[in-house]
Amino acid sequence: MTSTLRIPPTEITGIKGAIVKRFARKMLGEVPESLGVMWNNQKVLNFGFGLGRKTQKWDACPQQLKAFAHMAVASYVGCAFCLDLGYFEANNKGLDLAKAREVPVWRTSDRFTTLEREVMEYAEAMSDTPLTVTDELAASLLKQLGASGLLELTSFIALANFYTRSNIAVGIESSGLAARCELKPLVVASAVA
User: What would the pLDDT profile of 23-32 be if each residue is shown by its tens digit?
Assistant: First the structure.
């Protein structure tokens, strides 16, 4: 990480700290410095982890679509940590890595289906302030995903905005997770920042 952290990391201690570090090593292969930042307020950390765990049980929208949506938000808003984590998770979950690598340039890439493109357009439209979601785009996604799938995708994108914007605000940057998997992610300048 760089020196742009706006909240200094604190030492992760105690029994809970040992469990959190073990979980981080198992999931990520290391304890990222960003975890020390979040350790400053364990209630906030637990809230974020809890949301993440709960979304893993959602199954009305395909995992790959949600992954692309989160990476599209991360790229659009400019969260290098979330984009890095997205590539890392895509690798670990067996998602299409060629597509994952091109999420930041999805508009010019020829790898994506019409549905995938609409999902990423929706993710960006939900990331705008004010939102720029159109009735036509929502109707198309509703037809393809159904009400339950679209509601799940919408909630997932809203959470992606929570995570990305929080990370950017406190200065959390990439941890090099994708590089450890020998993925070379495309990082594109933020369209919003």
Answer: 999 988 899 9
Q: Residue 161 carries which side chain, given as an amino acid letter?
A: N
pTM for the model stands at: 0.90
Give me the amino acid identity at 57.
Answer: K
Evaluate whether residue 65 is within a structural domain. Answer: yes
Give the helix, strand, coil percentages of the chain, each rounded to 5. 65, 0, 35
Which CATH number is 62's domain given?
1.20.1290.10
Q: For residue range 62-89, what is the model confidence (pLDDT) as tens digits?
A: 999 999 999 999 999 999 999 989 988 8
Q: Residue 175: which H helix or E strand, with range?
A: none
Alpha carbon of 14 to those of 29, 35, 113, 123: distances in Å? 20, 14, 48, 39
Measure Cα distances from 5 to 27, 34, 169, 184 in Å: 23, 9, 9, 24
Domain that holds residue 66: 14-180
Q: Is residue 53 part of a domain?
A: yes
Domain membership flag for residue 187: no
